[in-house]
Amino acid sequence: MAAGNEEVSLPRSIRRLLPPFSGAPLGPALTLSLRSLARRRPALFERLGEFRTARFLIDPTDLPFAFCVVPDGASSMVRATGKSGSAPSDVVIRGPLLTLLGILDGSLDGDAVFFHRAISISGKTEAVLALRNAIEDAELQPSDLLGLRGNLARLANAGILGSLAAVRYLAMEVSTPEARRA
Questions:
Q1: pLDDT of 50-102, one tens digit each?
Q2: Other CB atoms within 10 A of residue 180 CB
C-alpha cells in the first residue's frame, strides 16, 4: 500500500469529455453493484453499525459530478448528483478520482492521503472511520464489486488494477513536467 502524497487528477483531456450529467447512468449501476456485494458479504455492511444509513457524499474533485452513497446493506443506494452542494449528507469526502479509487482498492493508505491533504473530509468523522475500517478489513478487489469469481475474477482484478495503475502513472507524468524531463 502506497502512502505518499497521491494528489493526481485525471488529465484535462479526459475531464473535458465528461459533461455534468454523465454520472447519471452510474448511480443505478453502482447501486446494483453495492446491493449485490451486500448479499454476498453482509458482514462488511454490518461493520458500519449505526452508520449504515449515513449519507456519504463522495466528491471526485476532477469530475463534474459527485455521488451520494448510503451503504445500507441490501438497501444501499448510490445516486449521481451535481456539485452544487445541495445534496443532503452526513459526511463529505473530496479528492481526485484516482486517489479515491486508490483508497478503495487498497493501493493507497487513506490516512496518509488525508494527512497529506490529498483528500478532505467534513461531517461525522466517526462515520468516516467506520467506513474506512470496513473497507480496509474487507480487502476489496474490483471482482468483489462486480460479483465475479474464479479465473474471471483474477482476470478482472489484474486488468482493472493494472489499468488504474497505468492511468495513475500517466496522470502523474502529465501533471509533473519535471518528471518528463528526467
A1: 999 999 999 999 888 899 999 999 999 999 988 876 678 999 999 998 888 88
A2: 8
Query: What is the span of the domain harbouring residue 90?
Result: 12-140
- Neighbouring CB atoms inside 10 A of 91's CB total 21
**CA-CA distance, 27 to 87, in Å (whole number)?**
14
Integer Cα distance of 45 and 41 in angstroms: 8
User: Which amino acid, one-letter code, is at 94?
Assistant: R
- How many independent structural domains does the chain possess? 1
Is 45 inside a domain boundary? yes
- What angle, rounded to 10 degrees, do the helices at 97-105 and 150-175 form? 140
Q: What is the CATH number of the domain that holds 21?
A: 3.30.1050.10
Tell me, yes or no, whether 101 lies in a domain.
Answer: yes
Which pTM does this prediction carry?
0.80
Which residues, in sequence order, are CB contacts of 82 under 8 Å at separation 6+? 20, 65, 66
